[in-house]
User: Which sequence fits this backbone?
């Protein structure tokens, strides 16, 4: 009886589970072997690409067959494309090698026929008289298997490259995200959506880095909050079947560095398939560009203009960061973005011209389609300060504002609440881990193993104690809303302390947007006709009356002459 081994192969775990499964191939091959009356010696199931030059498990099959002590006569597989996808050259190389050792290969469809001796009727045989009538068909099938692979990969990977450059994400999702299919005008596409528990840790990394913490300090902080890397299935190297779990590791410096470099958290895709050029994602990032840039100071600078993303590195990033800071938030011109040009109502600009004495004279100015309007920065700022001092909180809206404050307060407390929840989860995880160790202690019989488990239990007890202390500290940090409102009320009644703040121009711009229904022009500030939000009113007695030096035409000309 002829001795046969069976080769069953899939190219990937996905193919093994969704396409031509190993189990289905094995069932067909066993039926074929039994029908031929051969003896099944061994089965070789594995998942490995049939187009690799170096194939670990495929070589194992061939070496087993070629080992004379195993006395193998036949290697059986379902189809030639399960034997190789490298084309006819690779196919003939291995077929010849096996046949030279007296081993035949065959598929269940009988594409590979037995050799015929053209001198058999005369009782003679030569090397040239033996040939395979089906060899041309075998070569055609082997070449077709190679072409099919090329066509399939061109179609699937090519499409994924196109989708990636359109801002979608067909790859494995990074930590913090999961994939989700969405309907688009062009069909179903894959985007990334946040995973809330993982997002918390990613945000924490960027926030701590922006505050100046080093990688080791950030890793320690995350581990204290209970960070563990994502759990994945651990798969058998040969069959790719799930045999356990991998992951669940604490944060390290390297892991923190990897998170900080992922531009996709800021909604920008930059990878091999985009030729490392930035592409604005079709899904929002959960890390703001500002926070990303602060966390990656002097390394990476991201920006999006007109829906087009760009990335600067190294010195360019540092230069652009400084440029933006100077252009947008120069404390010499704190009101250029919140008080508009009285002529065209556009944002003002600020610059300093150099006089004959070498002294610089900072001025606000605008010339957007009209004759230049200009005013010395000192005079301009003083006029705005006078106006700000005259704004008062309208007591008639006290209750409404208090309700709005509590609503906003709850939004601001989200981060603190998430932090508390993370610390609570960490305590719960440690308790569960400790309980599992305790159950193992009760079951083991070895004194040596018991002592090792008891040591592990004590170590968990120490970590649990520290985790509880951290959790309790976090609870105490949650300040009452009543106390917070008292502070907010104080600043409402002393607005100038916030609005006249040239050291925090960005916050000042945000507050101006809250006080005015629409940003005022310089003329409206001088005239006292700015459109204030309903929660505020103007105290006319505090607003100083105009004087000749504030004339918006002659005064400007006289001032320019003195410069």
Assistant:
């Amino acid at each position: 009886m002829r001795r046969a081994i069976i080769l069953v192969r899939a190219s990937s775990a996905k193919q093994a589970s969704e396409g031509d499964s190993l189990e289905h191939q094995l069932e067909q091959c066993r039926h074929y072997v039994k029908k031929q009356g051969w003896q099944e010696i061994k089965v070789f199931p594995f998942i490995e690409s049939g187009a690799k030059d170096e194939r670990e498990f495929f070589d194992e099959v061939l070496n087993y067959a070629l080992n004379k002590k195993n006395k193998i006569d036949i290697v059986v597989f379902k189809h030639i494309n399960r034997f190789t996808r490298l084309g006819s050259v690779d196919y003939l190389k291995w077929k010849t090698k096996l046949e030279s050792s007296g081993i035949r290969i065959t598929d269940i469809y009988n594409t590979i026929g037995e050799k015929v001796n053209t001198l058999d009727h005369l009782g003679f045989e030569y090397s040239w008289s033996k040939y395979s009538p089906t060899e041309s068909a075998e070569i055609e099938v082997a070449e077709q298997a190679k072409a099919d692979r090329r066509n399939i990969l061109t179609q699937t990977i090519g499409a994924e490259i196109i989708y990636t450059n359109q801002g979608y994400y067909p790859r494995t999702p990074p930590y913090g995200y999961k994939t989700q299919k969405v309907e688009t005008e062009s069909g179903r596409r894959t985007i990334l959506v946040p995973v809330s528990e993982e997002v918390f840790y990613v945000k924490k990394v960027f926030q701590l880095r922006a505050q100046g913490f080093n990688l080791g300090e950030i890793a320690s902080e995350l581990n204290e909050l209970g960070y563990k890397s994502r759990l994945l299935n651990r798969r058998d190297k040969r069959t790719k079947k799930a045999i356990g779990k991998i992951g669940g590791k604490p944060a390290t410096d390297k892991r923190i560095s990897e998170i900080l470099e992922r531009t996709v958290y800021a909604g920008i895709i930059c990878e091999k398939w985009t030729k490392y050029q930035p592409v604005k994602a079709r899904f929002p990032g959960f890390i703001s560009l500002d926070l990303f840039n602060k966390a990656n100071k002097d390394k990476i600078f991201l920006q999006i203009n007109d829906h087009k993303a760009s990335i600067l590195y190294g010195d360019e990033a540092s230069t652009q960061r400084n440029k933006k800071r100077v252009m947008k938030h120069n404390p010499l011109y704190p009101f250029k973005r919140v008080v508009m040009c009285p002529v065209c109502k556009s944002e003002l600009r600020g610059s300093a011209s150099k006089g004959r004495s070498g002294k610089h004279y900072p001025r606000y100015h605008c010339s957007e389609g009209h004759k230049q309007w200009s005013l010395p920065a000192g005079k301009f700022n003083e006029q705005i300060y006078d106006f700000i001092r005259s704004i008062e909180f309208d007591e008639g809206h006290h209750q409404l504002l208090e309700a709005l404050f509590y609503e906003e307060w709850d939004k601001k407390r989200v981060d603190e609440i998430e932090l508390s929840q993370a610390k609570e989860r960490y305590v719960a995880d440690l308790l569960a881990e400790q309980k599992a160790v305790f159950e193992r202690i009760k079951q083991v019989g070895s004194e040596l193993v018991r002592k090792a488990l008891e040591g592990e239990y004590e170590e968990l007890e120490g970590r649990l104690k520290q985790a509880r202390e951290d959790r309790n500290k976090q609870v105490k940090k949650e300040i009452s809303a009543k106390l917070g409102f008292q502070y907010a009320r104080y600043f409402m009644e002393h607005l100038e302390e916030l609005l006249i703040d040239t050291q925090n121009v960005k916050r000042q711009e945000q507050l101006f947007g809250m006080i005015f229904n629409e940003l005022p022009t310089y003329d409206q500030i001088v005239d006292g006709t700015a459109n204030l939000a309903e929660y505020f009113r103007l105290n006319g007695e505090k607003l100083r009356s105009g004087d000749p030096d504030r004339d918006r035409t002659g005064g400007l000309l006289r001032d320019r002459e003195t410069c």
Notes: The mean pLDDT is 82. The chain has 20 helices and 19 strands.
